[in-house]
Amino acid sequence: MKPAPTLSSAFLHPVGHSLPEPLVALRKQRGSALVDMPLPTRKTENWKYSSKYLKLTDDMAISLPAEGKTGSSLAVPGYKVVFLNGVMIPEASEYPDLDGISIQSFDDLDNDEAADLADRLDNTLDNNAVQMARLNSARFEDGLLIRLKPDAVLDQPLFIVHEVTADASGSAFPRIYVDAGRHSQITLVEEYISSGSESVMVNTVTEFALADGAQVTSIRLNMEGDNVQHIGATGVRQQRSSRFESHSVGFGGPLRRHDLQVRLEGEGAECKLNGVVVTQGKQHYDNHTTIEHVAAHCNSEETYRNIAADQSHAVFNGRIHIHQDAQKSNADMNNKNLLLSNGAEIDTKPELEIYADDVKCAHGATIGQLDETSLFYLVSRGIGRREANVLLTMAFINELVEQIPVEAVRETAQTRLNQFFDQTFEEA
């Protein structure tokens, strides 16, 4: 019997030692736990459709250098923090100067702050379900700690620009932790971009801790090149009456994977998760989401839509878990999928696990193609077939794109979507 593949030891040797000692110790501890870690296979349930796309060669274990020119496709209207190959670049960043809001690189923390952060890291994610997040904990070279004191409000969105320069094979491990105090408010935009053509891996983890009444909006825009494997995880823990809103727009690649886990731990907490994915060629994108209703009187709303063209592959696995004490929960999940060719594939698996008896829950999933009757109607009115295809496809996802609350992100997403349509549809 062929032995299961394990993580190469080459991935267990981080090179950055400028971090405070408590974080170095945490990283070393996490690395020791990864020795002989089995890699996901088709028999690994939550990697069933994605394991064959995961290619971790030894040359990818090398940390990419944090040097070179930086730039961003977003016209950033306010605050910005730039990461280059997983390391923060202060000279390319523009920080808010507001009372009650602290933004620090992990490298700039004193020992007491680093020890407190080390106790908090990894507490928002189920690391058994999100296996590759453990690799980030063993390899992060730097990170960003964002702290909002009670009642602090960030007046403009904070853009986190993650750049990777793929001039040689290697990897980057960005890390972010957001501590949102009572009744604080922040909008965080994460943009992932790349340059270069060598095969690289980006393994990223972002964690949010929301205190009572905190309001956090998270926007994630993945636009890396076709040579970049991206494995990301976002963990969220919410307390009483807090609200978390997520908007994710992803463009496919050799492997795109995002795990989003939300725990509603305080009564009255709410979350809203929106996601749009488009794939073409032989690209792949996998979204796995989990919402844990732990406390009573919590609400969750989740809507994801996938479009797959050519021979590409999209995956959605959404799970809502209503715990026994989570009475009066209200949960709704909806996943719609559009196939633009006979060679494309979409796999969807919505899940509800309910242990409380006084709840309102619903979920649904559909997979289909463009309606020929609607196409014929548009063409018969003088609209070209290509334009008709674009109109119907954009209408399928535009409802979610229009809900993104930051104009610069909406415009960037729509520009990239138009490029996708140009490449996918030919004039008939």
UniProtKB/TrEMBL annotation:
Pfam families: SUFBD_core. It comes from the Bacteria. InterPro entries: Fe-S_cluster_assembly_SufBD, SUF_FeS_clus_asmbl_SufBD_core, SUF_FeS_clus_asmbl_SufBD_sf, SUF_FeS_clus_asmbl_SufD. Residues 168-396 form the SUF system FeS cluster assembly SufBD core domain. PANTHER family: PROTEIN ABCI7, CHLOROPLASTIC. This is Fe-S cluster assembly protein SufD. The gene is sufD.
